[in-house]
Design brief:
Strand 6 and strand 7 form a beta hairpin. The protein has 7 helices and 10 strands. The chain folds into 3 domains: 57 residues, no CATH class; 110 residues, Band 7 domain (Tetrahydropterin Synthase, Chain A, 2-Layer Sandwich); 38 residues, no CATH class. 16% of the residues are buried. The chain is of the alpha+beta class and 271 residues long. The chain is 50% helix and 24% strand. A 3-stranded antiparallel sheet has the order 3-2-5. A 3-stranded antiparallel sheet has the order 6-7-8. The longest helix has 51 residues. The protein is elongated. Helix 3 crosses helix 5.
Length: 271
């Protein structure tokens, strides 16, 4: 009985050591993440193998795993840049990005886990300053925002092309101009809108006038043709037809045949 505790102590020590060993050797990679293996006694960061994927992994207890989020992420950049005429513009932009999964080991080895501040943010700022410097404040505020967004995206992609970072999109969220410049642009845009509306009214009025003229010319031509086709004989026949119809009316009247101009009948009523 006295020997049992002596036997139990080594077993407990072994169990504790085994638990610690397993705890050091086991790692779980969560959804949307990947791990970069670092071999302490074998050339450090593993770059010639795919990163550790989601799930449970057993590694040597003296090695390490650096976990990266590999889903699409977003950063927001607030920048002060200069327009083509030297005015200071405040620009707010979002970038959608994610690490290059296949080169995650290279990213960790060369850039580290703070690769966003080391690579991506400086690239976005540089591209934004370059692109915005080609445009006037008015273009930035109104007509060219989409084009500027595309250009910043393309220039940033060129900068980070060999930096193991995948850039998916750049979105211009806000452009803030100096108050005086903004007011001047808005007044100008308002005047342009009013001018366009006035021009539209002039065009509409001109079209209406043209329509009236065409209708009048058509009516005049019709009357000319009708006048040319009417002879005295035709008028007499028309008068006789009208007289016959009136004589058939139940209204009281007196018809005097042949007493009117050109021999047409006169019709005398009781009124």
């Amino acid at each position: 009985m006295e020997k049992l505790p002596k036997i139990g102590i080594p077993v407990i020590v072994v169990l504790i050591f085994a638990i610690i060993l397993v705890a050091k050797s086991a790692i779980t990679i969560s959804a949307g993440e990947a791990g970069v293996l670092y071999k302490t006694f074998d050339n450090g960061v593993v770059t010639d193998q795919p990163p550790l994927g989601e799930g449970f992994h057993i590694i040597a207890p003296w090695n390490k795993v650096f976990v990266y989020e590999v889903r699409q992420q977003e950063i927001v950049e607030n920048m002060q840049v200069l327009s083509s005429n030297g005015l200071e513009i405040k620009l707010e932009a979002s970038a959608w990005y994610q690490p290059d999964y296949a080169n995650l080991g290279n990213l960790h080895q060369q850039k580290g886990q703070n690769y966003v501040s080391r690579v991506l943010q400086p690239a976005i700022r540089s591209a934004a300053r370059s692109v915005v410097g080609r445009y006037t404040p008015e273009q930035l505020y109104s007509s060219k925002r989409d084009a500027i967004q595309v250009e910043i995206l393309e220039e940033t992609k060129n900068i980070v092309a060999d930096q193991y970072v995948q850039l998916n999109e750049i979105l211009i969220r806000d452009v803030t101009l100096p108050a005086t410049i903004k007011d001047a642009i808005e007044r100008k845009l308002g005047q342009e809108q009013a001018s366009l509306e006035f021009e539209f009214r002039l065009v509409t009025a001109a079209k209406e006038a043209e329509k009236v003229i065409i209708e009048a010319e058509g009516k005049a031509e019709s009357n000319r043709i009708l006048s040319a086709s009417l002879t005295d004989k035709i008028l007499q026949d028309k008068g006789i037809d009208a007289t016959i119809k009136l004589s058939e009316s139940p209204n009281t009247k007196i018809i005097v045949i042949g007493s009117g101009d050109s021999g047409l009948p006169l019709i005398l009523g009781n009124n």
